[in-house]
Amino acid sequence: MPQRDGSPLGDVEALVFDVFGTVVDWHGTVVRELEALGRAHAVEADWPRFANRWRQGYIEGILHVIAGQTPWKLVDEIHRERLGPLLEEAGLATKLGPIETEDLNRVWHRLDPWPDSVAGLRRLESRWVIATLSNGNVSLLVDMAKRARLPWNCILSAEMIGRYKPDPEVYRWAARVLGREPHQIALVAAHPPDLEAARGVGLRTLYVSRPLEYGPGREAAFPVSGNEFDLHAVDLVDLAAKLEPYAG
User: What is the pTM of this model?
Assistant: First the structure.
């Protein structure tokens, strides 16, 4: 297809978003809830470390599924499996009943958006189709969107295809579902491996910096230097401002 303005981004009609870390602040939300539980049960622990290890457990869990080392399971299930040992180490396992433990596991359904996310998404949604493209299961993404008022046009979840990013087929599937060619879709993410996988199947790539994803004073898991991707932005409002000149 011809490019409307001479730029590859001029053909983009839909934006698909990584969610954890890119749109919502998982670390800040999880730490806040862990601190509240600690106070309620008179338990002290390194809650930021707990949150980061829980997140790392999720990453390891999906990699095991991708490698065929474990059968397919929902992200909710991966989170629950990884939570038990962490509660033991922190001294909370014997203090939380089953209902309280399950409620903690569902903290991932109620993550707070970054301060710029809702405004940025609304601005982007006025020009483009916007959808999630997340490994999170559908119920998690729906609950999160409802609570945080995230204005998605569509919820796309890896659950729907039974694969996890960065499997290339997830990105191809998203383009098919949205009725576009891969080059008409752009992935928005704070994680270079996700963007690199999307680029490998023809999607455009929009990088958003989230230096606080793992908490204050902690290095980003995937630092970026230079201009590896089609566009770099400091947040979603900045992304909207930089992308709007390419809108048809």
Answer: 0.94
Which amino acid type is present at position 195?
Answer: L
Any bridge partners for residue 204, and if so which?
186
* pLDDT, tens only, 65-113: 999 999 999 999 999 999 999 999 999 999 999 999 999 999 999 999 9
Distance of CA 130 to the CA centre of its chain: 14
User: Peptide bond preceding 113: is omega within 30 degrees of 0, i.e. cis?
Assistant: no
Instruction: Report, as an integer, the average pLDDT of 40-64.
Output: 96
Tell me the DSSP string of 39-55. Answer: HHTT----HHHHHHHHH
Helical segments of the chain, H only? 26-40, 47-66, 75-90, 98-105, 117-125, 138-148, 168-177, 192-200, 236-243
Tell me the domains of the chain and their CATH numbers: 8-25+111-246 (3.40.50.1000), 27-109 (1.10.150.240)
On the 0-12 / 13-18 / 19+ scale of CB atoms within 10 A, 207 is: buried
